[in-house]
Design goal:
The complex is a heterodimer of chains A (201) and B (439). Chain A is of the alpha/beta class and 201 residues long. In chain A, 28% of the residues lie in helices and 33% in strands. Chain B folds into 2 domains: 251 residues, UDP-N-acetylmuramoyl-L-alanine:D-glutamate ligase; 133 residues, Protein-Tyrosine Phosphatase, Chain A (Alpha-Beta Complex), CATH 3.90.190.20. Classes of the chains: A alpha/beta (201), B alpha/beta (439).
Chain lengths: 201, 439
């Protein structure tokens, strides 16, 4: 059984981001995969090692702050999760939460970055479509995974996002998985393989 | 400069009238000549402003038209609610020295423009209808809109707003202004378990604990209580009871009042208007009579070939208005076709953001009374993809370039009812396609 956690769906409620969970779970069902979906909120304890896929999306800054305070106590658990090659996808302004992991830095801009996105990624062959509506971008870093054709990359360059193992962070909303079926499929296949490996161990 | 600005504005209004063309141009030119014009009008002694994400126009109209029964009123009836449009409305009633010559001023103001309008007009009464997700590329998120409004409210303005929405209680938390609330009582459409997702507020504005609801009217509106602090719904003086969306009425103080439509927002807009008018010392009978008269509208349904048709006009990029339409349609158990579509998303910018489609609870349409959903217009494919993720079966979804292209299929379908869940720009094409021409 694949275990999915959606972090803070009652606090991070902007830009239809739970469409990413809808797209992912629909594709899992199509692939005849059994899964469980757990919604995690502020009042919950999080056992990261239980999950195979964790998703976190955009929210109002006040709520991002609450979430960050809740997650910071799990710093070690999150790093262990990432180092064990499990999947964590953060989209939109949720990128601003994870700077406490010290894997990448973020920049806050005085004006909102709103832009249509056209991009490519080595993960899939299709062109990525989406939107940006954020005050934060990642600062130039060594591990971007998206090449921007239209829109804004890290530090407003053409390189966007951050990845380490299967930890993927991007400022792109859409929802990105719902609007990009091949990218969604990439994560589904990755999730199935991560889950198989777990069962072998 | 002030007199020149007013004079030029008035001349442009006059020219517009001769050619039967109204626009915000007079205000635009007058403000160009004298940018401080709004600061230097002498406003009437009764000043009312209505703002919020939706419902501003209807609420303003009900208030203004009721006051007109006994007093002269200046109001932006055209719906132009930014600085230029408001200035144009004021110029119409201004003397050359800037004196607004009416007894009352009633203005609908865009929620992002309150900061440039409220400090000058200093309304006695500020009606805030709601604050919901709206135009994400422009508004981003509601805290920004809230901050704009809260900073611009003069300290003597009396705020009139909705008790049912815990988010709107932030005004009481952050301001010392007097606030008068209204509420729609639990009714036959209320529900116990939340059916919508991605909402604005789930937590207490004071202590961040998760709010508990004894019932919901829709989305976050209902009877809430914080389990950890004293924050709770408090029964206000103005309550709409016995809501009946079929008869399009509710009662206030045991008097039956027409709400002017069969949508929940009709009830809330009427309540906001009633509460505002009640502050003006108008007697209740005359308020009731006026609202009943203004809201006496024929049903918007029409019949063609034994099918009942109904267009529900929604506001693009505002998921709440679509959720209200879906809430209405889901309560109808008849076999139905639904048409969803629009000509364009926004006229204000060129961004192509469809994230708001994922804030709409299309899942609620997925029941046995659904025959087909027709998706039309520029976003037909995007709407279809959203519906598929709401687990609506592919064979139930029909795509069309526009409404005319699906007309014959709809007319010959098995459904007895046809609902259009449409942006306002598709209401006319819907009616043109399906209303029988009068012989």
């Amino acid at each position: 059984m694949i275990k999915i956690a959606h972090l803070y769906p009652e606090l991070l409620t902007l830009y239809g981001e739970n469409g990413n969970i809808k797209a992912l779970t629909k594709e899992l069902t199509k692939n005849k995969q059994k899964y469980s979906l757990t919604n995690i909120n502020l009042e919950d304890e999080i056992n990261f090692s239980e999950y195979d896929f964790i998703y976190i999306g955009s929210g109002r800054p006040k709520n991002l702050e609450l979430v960050k305070n809740h997650l910071m106590k799990y710093e070690k658990d999150i790093l262990t999760y990432i180092n064990s090659h499990k999947i964590l996808l953060a989209t939109g302004n949720a990128l601003s939460i994870f700077d406490f992991l010290n894997l990448y830095e973020i920049e806050k801009y005085p004006e909102f970055i709103t832009a249509d996105i056209k991009a490519t990624t080595p993960l899939v062959k299709e062109e990525i479509k989406g939107f940006q509506n954020t005050e934060w971008l990642i600062k130039n870093c060594d591990n971007p995974f998206i090449d921007i054709i239209e829109g804004y990359g890290n530090s407003k360059t053409t390189k966007e996002g951050y990845y380490k193992n299967n930890f993927y962070v991007t400022s792109i909303i859409g929802p990105i998985l719902a609007r990009n079926p091949k990218l969604n499929n990439y994560f589904v296949k990755l999730l199935i393989s991560v889950n198989k490996d777990k069962n072998i161990i | 400069m002030k007199i020149l600005a007013i004079l030029v504005g008035k001349i442009i209004i006059l020219i517009g009238k001769i050619f039967h063309k109204g626009s915000s141009l007079p205000g635009k030119v007058a403000l160009k000549i004298y940018p401080d014009l709004l600061k230097n009008f002498q406003y009437p002694s009764i000043r009312i402003v209505v703002t919020g994400s939706s419902g501003k126009g209807s609420t303003t109209k009900l208030i203004a038209e009721t006051i007109k029964n006994t007093k002269t009123v200046c109001y932006n009836s055209s719906g132009a609610n930014l600085s230029w449009g408001i200035t144009t409305a004021l110029l119409e009633h201004a003397s050359l020295n800037g004196h607004i010559k009416t007894d009352a001023l009633v203005l609908e103001v865009d929620e992002r423009y309150t900061k440039t309008i409220l400090p000058y007009i200093k309304p006695d009464y500020l009606v805030i209808t709601n604050l919901t997700k709206d135009q994400p590329p422009r508004q981003h998120y509601i805290d920004l809109v809230y901050d704009d409004i809260v900073k611009s409210i003069p300290k003597n303005s009396l705020i009139i707003t909705n008790m049912d929405d815990p988010y709107l209680r932030n005004f009481a938390k952050d301001l010392k202004n007097k606030i008068v609330y209204y509420s729609l009582a639990k009714n036959k459409y209320s529900y116990k378990k939340q059916i919508f997702e991605n909402l604005n507020i789930y937590h207490c504005p004071y202590c961040n604990s998760k709010l508990k609801y004894s019932y919901y009217n829709i989305e976050t509106l209902g009877n809430y209580k914080c389990p950890n602090c004293s924050f709770t719904y408090e029964e206000p003086q103005y309550i709409g009871k016995n809501l009946d969306l079929t008869k399009m009425t509710f009662t206030i103080n045991n008097e039956i009042i027409n709400i002017g439509g069969d949508m929940l927002y009709n009830a809330y807009n009427t309540l906001a208007s009633y509460t505002c008018l009640a502050q003006l010392n108008l007697d209740f009978t005359s308020i009731n009579n006026s609202l009943n008269n203004l809201n006496k509208l024929p049903s918007k349904d029409f019949i063609n070939d034994n099918k009942t048709f109904r267009a529900i006009s929604c506001k693009a990029e505002n998921a709440s208005t679509y959720n209200q339409a879906i809430f209405k349609v889901m309560h109808d158990q008849d076999k139905k076709d639904i048409i969803i579509g629009w000509l364009e998303i926004s006229r204000r910018y060129n961004h192509y953001d469809i994230s708001w489609l994922y804030d709409i609870e299309f899942e609620l349409l997925n029941n046995s009374s659904l025959n087909k959903i027709y998706v039309c217009g520029i976003d037909a494919l995007n709407i279809k993809q959203r519906l598929l993720l709401a687990n609506i079966k592919n064979e139930k979804i029909v795509m069309g370039e526009n409404i005319a292209s699906i007309k014959e299929k709809v007319l010959h379908s098995k459904a007895s009812k046809v609902y259009g869940i449409l942006n306002f720009d598709y209401v006319k094409p819907f009616e043109e396609a399906f209303k029988k021409k009068e012989e």
